[in-house]
Prior knowledge:
- The chain has 5 domains: 32-136, Immunoglobulin-like, CATH 2.60.40; 142-241, Immunoglobulins (Immunoglobulin-like, Sandwich), CATH 2.60.40.10; 250-378, Immunoglobulin-like (Sandwich), CATH 2.60.40; 385-513, Immunoglobulins (Immunoglobulin-like, Sandwich); 517-545.
- By secondary structure, it is mostly beta strands.
- The longest helix has 29 residues, at 516-544.
- It starts with a helix and ends with a helix.
- The protein has helices at residues 3-23, 516-544; strands at 32-40, 49-58, 66-75, 80-85, 89-90, 95-103, 108-120, 125-136, 142-147, 150-151, 156-163, 170-179, 182-186, 188-194, 199-208, 212-223, 229-241, 247-255, 279-280, 286-287, 298-307, 313-322, 325-326, 330-332, 341-346, 355-365, 368-378, 385-395, 398-407, 413-420, 426-428, 434-440, 445-454, 460-469, 472-481, 491-493.
- It has 2 helices and 36 strands.
Amino acid sequence: MSPRGHVFALVAVVLLLTSSVGTVVAVPDARLTVSDAAVLPETPVVGEQVVVSVSIANSVASPDAARIDEVRLSDPVDDLDVRARTLGSLSPGDSVTVPVALTFETAGARTLSLTVLGTDEDGDRVRVERPVPIAVEDAPPLVDVAVSDAVVDSETRIQVSLSNPTTADIRNIVVSVDSFDGEALVGTASVATLPDGATEVRNLTVVPAASGDLPVALRVNYTTASGTEKSFVTETRAQVGEFSDDVQLSLRPIREDDGATTDASTLASLLGGGAAGVAFGGGGGVTDGADESTTEDVAGFEVVVTNFGSAPVSDVVVETEWSNGTLPRLSIPGPIEPGASAAATVDLSEVRTAGPLSMTASYRVGVASGTSTTTLDYRPAVADVAVTDLDVTVEDGELRIVGNIVNRGLGEASGVVVELVEGESVAPQYPQRDYFVGRVTPSDFAPFELTGLVSEEATDVTVRTRYTIGGVEVVHDHVVDLPEDEQDGGFAVGSLGNVGTVAGSEQHAAVSRIDPATRGVALAVFVTLLALPVAAALRIRRETG
Length: 545
């Protein structure tokens, strides 16, 4: 090679070396490392603040200190870029933890890019990069919905349980009925703040318009810890039954021993207008209108309201009426659920006469109103005095009545007096214008005798009984027919029932019946007449033998 060629080759080598030196970057003396990038909470959710704690260290073998200029986190999914700057310097062997906060708007797995930028003492730039994998979940408030027994045209409760599955507060939670085939009486409920891990229960009220398997959609609005307002809809189904209004009334006694009431199954169920012939007695017990009363003492009575329908019953008011008036109203607030009963004590002490007792219940069933009426034959524990076994004779205008006073009731009659009522054709006469009987116990009797004068025009007379029940006087009039013709013998009249519980009421009743004394004499004569032929036959047989 010529000298000139050597010169060109040397120049080329020098230029090559010079250009290579210009592109080489100096290696920094500081040795920065990222030892950890911890994510809290470990399972972040959408709308919740997430903190990534980045641990940065300057190696102990580094000859220079290093200044931390910037820590940056980037999310390619939500296009987030969060930076922390001016974080100070680290001497060799020192470390620092830098928290970086961010909030994700969408759920799903992604990889964050972590970049740490620094500068050593020589001004050389230091750059450390590290991937941070993370999974973000969508975690709104947890909603649990329970629908109570639903009935058409009846208030139905929807119980909503709201839970916070996150580690931050959820605010301004509002749950509302989004869609439903019916009316929402209470269609919105709210929770101001739901702390992490907490649960709150709220109730909504709807009125179904149709029966069947109906969908119920609820909307939940809430605000996340970062201030983001969100909303979602949850759906459930409600089984809605047909509407049925079936309320029944019954009356049952309260026993004196321990206040326990007789089981309703032992009494007649008193349906609207039914239960005729059912009778109740106090002080002597309860009868069924035919059997003898029980020996158990009765302290009072309860009106029992039973709901056999499909909707709850509330605001029950019971009115009781009898022949002489109305008793004070009874109130049973309720609610009485389907299949359940409720009772209220009724004071029947004012009812002193046997007869129909009518009870009417007005109430609220579902969103409507209803009524139920029942009538029963009530027999109070009071005396019921009548005259019986009457022997009526009239001779030359002189009247004589002999008979018995009988107490057919369940209570005692005191101060019993029997008298002949004076009229245009009847005049009481000495020695028995009236007759004082005194006390007559239930199912007992006492004899009496009355005398008077009657005119030829008289066809009947009135026998009046007076007695006292609980300090109240009761008067009964009994009409007695006179014999058509005057006669020496007695004119027997059978048992006469009561005509009423107040003076002035009348009842015609006469049944032919033989007086007990007359019956005995007739029997003796009959036996004697039968015995005479037999005795004569025996005598003739002995003589012929």
